[in-house]
Every structure is written in structure tokens, then in C-alpha cells.
Amino acid sequence: MYDSYSQAGNRAIKVAVIGAGNRARKYLEYAIMHPDELAIVAIVDPVEIRLNQLSDKFAIPAEYRFSNYYDFFATDIELDAVMICTPEDKHFEPTMMAIDKGYNILLEKPIAQTLQECEAIAQGAKEKNLVVGVCHVLRFHPYFIKIKEIIDSGELGEVISFNHTADINLDRVTHGFVRGSWNRAEKTNPMLISKCSHDVDLALWMVGSKCKKVSSFGSLRWFKAENAPKGSADRCIHCPDHIESKCPYSAIDLYKVRHDWVANFDVPEDSTLDKVLDRELAQGPYGRCVYRCDNNVADHQMVNIETENEVTASFTINAFTLNDCRFTQVNLTHGEITGDEQKLTVRRFRERTTEVYDFSHVAHMPFHGGSDLRLVADFVEAVRNRNHKLRTDIQDSLESHRVCYAAEESRLTGKTIIFKD
Ligand SMILES: NC(=O)c1ccc[n+]([C@@H]2O[C@H](COP(=O)([O-])OP(=O)(O)OC[C@H]3O[C@@H](n4cnc5c(N)ncnc54)[C@H](O)[C@@H]3O)[C@@H](O)[C@H]2O)c1
Q1: Which end of the chain is more exposed for a tag (fewer CB within 10 A), N or C?
Q2: pLDDT tens for residues 116-147?
Q3: What is the pLDDT of the chain when averaged over all its residues?
Q4: Ligand 1 near 108 CB (within 6 A)
Q5: All residues at 6 or more sequence positions from 52 whose CB lies less than 8 Å from its CB, including other chains
Q6: What pTM value is reported for the model?
Q7: Which 3 state secondary structure label does DSSP give 406?
């Protein structure tokens, strides 16, 4: 039997990975940097090219490469944990199967597709006393940690309001939420949950309290057929030049000209990225006109929260922006904090002083400013040492998911949702 301990040292935790895509590839860099802590022993992915590319990188033997997680869970591989990095319609089932087997779990956010599923996972983890971490990586980001430290130090008094905006970038939106995998709420989740459970989690973490009331507004305002320019076509490659050349959402411009968001296209050995892109533009979902996709998730949304400690928190998702960053403003009784992930400004009211912290070097670092790797380190430590408290455990994440699902309910019904004890 393949024994990763012999390769990686006897303190490494043995982990299987389910879903060998973008997120898994990032987290697994940790195993390359720290083979004495993390050993990858099995990989599951139905897409052969991804399964083999990642398995080759970790010298996973053929019998530990699986095309589906049923086969994987049917084995009795000796493991400490699984990492679940599948799309969210494939979170609940493998997570419950992993709980059943008694494996600790690092689970990509969002937890699952309904609050009931999230609760079942949290309950299962509790009953089996398992470590279940949820990948809310922003809690590991030095910039956000600095804000949290300033708040918790008490030097600026008590938090009165927390206002936060996620500029999620137009290319990300057209790629993921209009043409791509996260474009239908019932297939994955509403955009607030798919993309921004991070931000609601962050707000509750910063404020250090539970949500008492939540309301939300938003809709799919723009990316639908009635807004298509007259004379435009179903695919960008068929669109007349005078329309395509002015369209800010053109797939030709995004993929072929600017080469953005192309890392997610699989390139078989006997092909090239250019050929893959040409085929995608002609036949694939990513070549479709943004006004004529099957998307139904909102393209703009606001969430308002009142917490048990009487803090008001607001959160806005901006899709229509070139920025890819978050703006945060925290107003406290004795000072205020503002930042854009690069520059953090702290002002004290009585002293009339201003301090500025520069995080621009972190903002440009890979792996979410190194946070992805710090998250894995935290998980490894929690599995090895059960006294170690995870920074993003399932119970904390359950709270933010509860608020997200309630916000969606509010957006759809127009009601303010009031939480009862
Ligand atoms: N924490 C973050 O900052 C962050 C960022 C982006 C995405 N995400 C989340 O991470 C998850 C994965 O996103 P991604 O960008 O890596 O997507 P991805 O499409 O790049 O990777 C998902 C992988 O799962 C595989 N897969 C699909 N069905 C499977 C199955 N039944 N069994 C095993 N593997 C299966 C796919 O083939 C693919 O390789 C999603 O839930 C997403 O919302 C989190």
C-alpha cells in the first residue's frame, strides 16, 4: 500500500482531495511547501485530465485516483481528513459521507445549498467530534486580521456600525455568474451565498455578535434578453463588429484578447489553449452572449443587518466594476477605520490623529495574499492538536450561512427577517 508517512514524515496528516479544480490546486501548494505536515494520499475528480494532472504532481498511484467519490468512500484508506473542493451542489453528500467515515473535513465555502443541509453537517460534525473547517479565507488575510485586532483591542471604543462593499469585478461576474458554473441559484446557490458568504462571515466576525434582523434588496437587473443590443447575436463570434467591439462583456475580448479567466479551461495534451478557446467561443457556454444565457442569479444586491449588540452592518455587492477588492468602514465610539485592502486608515476622534497601514504588497500576493495557505496550516494544526481552535470552524460558518439564507429570503419576499433565540 502507498504510505505517505514514509514519504512525508510521521507527523504529516494524511488527506484525500475531492474536486481537483482551482481551489484544490491552491490549497495543495501547502503540501508541497510542508510535506512534513500534509500528505496527499488520494484524489477524486470525474474530469480525467484534472484528476491525472493533480495526481501526477503528488505521485498518487493509480489505485488511489478516483473518478467518483462513491468508489473512494467505499475504500478503507487510512486517512486523517478530506478536503472537499467540489462545486457546492457536490458539497453536502460527500461531506456527510466523510462524517460517516469519521474523517475530519476541510470544506470549501459555501457549506452546502440549503440551511438545513448546513445544519445537518454541523450537527454530524458535533456528534462525531470531528474538525470541520470552512474555507472563509478572508479571516486569514493580514489586512482583515489587522482590522479585527484594532477592533478587539478596544482602543477605539465600541463598534457602532460596519459598512462593507465587495467590488467583485465585471469579468468575474460574466465568467462565473452569467455564463459559468455559478449562474443559476438552484444549481449552486444565490450569488450572495456562492460569492459573498465570505463577507457576511467577515461582518459577524468583526462585530463579534449574532444577527438579530436582516433585510436585503437586489435583482437580476441587466444580464437578460430584453437588454440585448438590437442586432446582437447569440454568440460573441456571431455578433456584428460594430456591436461586439463596443461590448464590455465580449467573450472574445475577455478570453482571446485579454487572456483573462482562461486558467479554468482544460487544455488536453494534443491541443492548445487557443484551440480550446476557439471551440469554447463557437460551442461552449463561455462563448454565449451575456444577455442570452440561462442565468438567474442577482447581479446586484445589498444586505442590512442589525446585531444583538446593536451594531448596524451593511453590505453591498457591486458587479459592475473593474475593481476586484473590498472596501470596509468601521465606525467606533472613539475612532474610525477605513480601508480598501491596500491602505488601512485609522483615525482617533479626540486626538485627531491618523495612522495609515500599507497592505499593498499583500494585496498583490498570490493565494489571496497568502491566506489560502494560512487556512490550510490552521486546519492541519487543528487535526494534529485537538486543543487548537480553528479560525473558521463549522459553527461560526453556520451562523453566517443562516444570515445569508435569511437575506435571500428577505430579498425574495420583501420582508425583514427577525431571528428568534
Ligand atoms: N474560498 C474561496 O475563496 C473560494 C474561491 C472560489 C471558489 N470557492 C468555492 O470552491 C468550490 C470549488 O470552486 P473551484 O473554483 O475550485 O471550482 P472548479 O470548477 O475549478 O473545481 C471544482 C472541481 O470539482 C470537480 N468535481 C465536480 N463534480 C465532482 C464530483 N462529483 N466528485 C469529485 N469532483 C467533482 C470538477 O471536475 C472540478 O475539477 C466552490 O464551492 C466555490 O464556491 C471558494
Answers
A1: C
A2: 999 999 999 999 999 999 999 999 999 999 99
A3: 95
A4: yes
A5: 65
A6: 0.94
A7: helix
23 CA closest ligand 1 atom index = 16
What are the DSSP calls for 343-356, one per residue?
EEEEEETTTTEEEE
Section 4-33 average pLDDT = 84
Cα–ligand 1 centroid distance for 116 (angstroms): 21
Residue owning the nearest CA to atom 7 of ligand 1: 23
Name every residue whose Cβ is closer than 8 Å to that of residue 32 and which is 6 or more positions away in sequence: none
Q: CB neighbours (10 Å) of residue 41?
A: 25
Among 14, 110, 150, residue whose Cα is nearest residue 392? 110
Give per-residue pLDDT as tens, 166-184. 999 999 999 999 999 999 9
Task: Spell out the domains of the chain, with CATH numbers in brackets.
Answer: 4-137 (3.40.50.720), 138-223+296-361+390-418 (3.30.360.10), 226-292 (no CATH)
Q: State how far the Cα of 25 lies from the Cα of 21, in Å rounded to an integer.
A: 6
Contact 287, 233 (CB under 8 A): no
Q: What is the pLDDT of residue 3?
A: 41
